[in-house]
């Protein structure tokens, strides 16, 4: 039985492949070998995108949007011709199947390295979250350019994408690793002589061992140590430190105009800009009608006041603040004053007559 079982192997002269070799070859064909990572891990740059229950559509919109603005900033993407790719020593033929498999894997790796795309979707590790790995571009510059254009043109270009956050670096999601990484990561923005106001935004997904208060406290302490003139401003900061933790990976970035661009929300930045800058025509008519009604009410009130003034003339007391105005007296007051004057005059005549008789 043992001889019969070994007979096919001796006849063919080829060793059986292990399971690990099949898995390795499958990953290489998918691009998981030399074609870049297939999931979020430390040491990457990219763009973190949140969507609304449709990740496939989100990836399609992200590719379309990023390629459009990427070509605008960095020019069209260039590829290497497939015929010019190095294929290794094709003349050498090896009988060993294992060596042949390694050769095939190395060729696939070399070809994929030459054809790395500028934007490549990888597994983020969280639902409704897409991570687009970037190569040869600056994520902060690209995303800020996209939001600025949408803010000024008021054109809605996405339906599924909600937020788009640039990620300048990733590290392990442990406090000590984050502190060590942030000390050098935050230097271009906050190390003296550079300075500015800042705030820290923290979000954790599928992670329960990190403390929000500890992370914010440690990062704020690092920024303060880089330059004591860096101040916290939660209303309108110059820089916003974004901390996004997914499973065991921490994503960091420093962005500008975070509050102006509605927390980098592509849906809200168009809505708020359009509604805030240009009111609706119905609102304009309502405003005009309200102003017209207000003016009519003011005219009516002025007319009623003038009629009342004619009927009841006002009396201004002496020593009042109004200057240059003489107080019109009522008829009763004028008659009383005349009577008082006549009485005083008769009294004076009687006194004079009594003096002459004496």
From TrEMBL:
The keyword Methyltransferase does not apply. Transmembrane segments: none annotated. Keywords: RNA-binding. The keyword RNA-binding applies. Pfam families: THUMP. PROSITE patterns: THUMP. Residues 275-288 have a biased composition (Polar residues). InterPro entries: THUMP_dom (IPR004114), THUMPD1-like (IPR040183). Residues 1-42, 76-99, 272-358 are annotated as: Disordered. SMART domains: THUMP. GO terms for biological process: tRNA modification. Residues 89-98 have a biased composition (Acidic residues). Residues 149-256 form the THUMP domain. One of its GO terms (molecular function) is RNA binding. Residues 293-312 have a biased composition (Basic and acidic residues). Functions as a tRNA-binding adapter to mediate NAT10-dependent tRNA acetylation modifying cytidine to N4-acetylcytidine (ac4C). Interacts with NAT10. Binds tRNA. This is THUMP domain-containing protein 1. It comes from Monodelphis domestica. The lineage of its organism: Eukaryota, Metazoa, Chordata, Craniata, Vertebrata.
């Amino acid at each position: 039985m043992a001889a019969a079982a070994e007979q096919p192997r001796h006849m063919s002269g080829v060793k059986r492949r292990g399971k690990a070799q099949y898995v390795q070859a499958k990953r290489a064909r998918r691009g998981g070998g030399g074609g870049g990572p297939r999931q979020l891990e430390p040491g990457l740059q990219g763009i973190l995108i949140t969507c609304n229950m449709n990740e496939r559509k989100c990836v399609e919109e992200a590719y379309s949007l990023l390629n459009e603005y990427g070509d605008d900033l960095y020019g069209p993407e260039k590829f290497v011709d497939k015929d010019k790719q190095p294929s290794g020593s094709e003349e050498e033929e090896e009988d060993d199947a294992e060596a042949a498999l390694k050769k095939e894997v190395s060729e696939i790796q070399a070809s994929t390295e030459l054809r790395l795309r500028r934007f490549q979707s990888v597994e983020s590790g969280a639902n409704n979250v897409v991570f687009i790995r970037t190569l040869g571009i600056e994520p902060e510059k690209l995303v800020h350019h996209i939001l600025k254009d949408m803010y000024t043109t008021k054109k809605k270009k996405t339906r599924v994408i909600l937020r788009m956050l640039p990620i300048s670096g990733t590290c392990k999601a442990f406090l000590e690793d984050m502190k060590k990484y942030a000390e050098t990561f935050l230097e271009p923005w906050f190390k003296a002589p550079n300075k500015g106001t800042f705030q820290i935004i923290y979000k954790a997904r599928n992670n329960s061992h990190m403390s929000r208060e500890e992370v914010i406290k440690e990062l704020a302490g690092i920024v303060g140590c880089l330059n004591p003139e860096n101040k916290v401003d939660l209303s309108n900061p110059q820089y916003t430190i974004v901390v996004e933790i997914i499973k065991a990976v921490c994503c960091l970035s420093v962005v500008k105009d975070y509050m102006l661009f509605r927390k980098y929300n592509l849906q809200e930045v168009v809505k708020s800009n359009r509604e805030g800058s240009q009111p609706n025509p119905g609102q304009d008519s309502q405003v005009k009608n309200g102003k017209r009604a207000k003016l009519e009410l003011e005219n009516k009130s002025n007319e009623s006041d003038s009629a009342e003034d004619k009927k009841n003339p006002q009396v201004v007391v002496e020593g009042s603040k109004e200057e240059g105005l003489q107080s019109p007296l009522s008829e009763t007051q004028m008659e009383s004053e005349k009577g008082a004057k006549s009485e005083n005059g008769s009294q004076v005549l009687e006194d004079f007559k009594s003096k002459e008789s004496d």
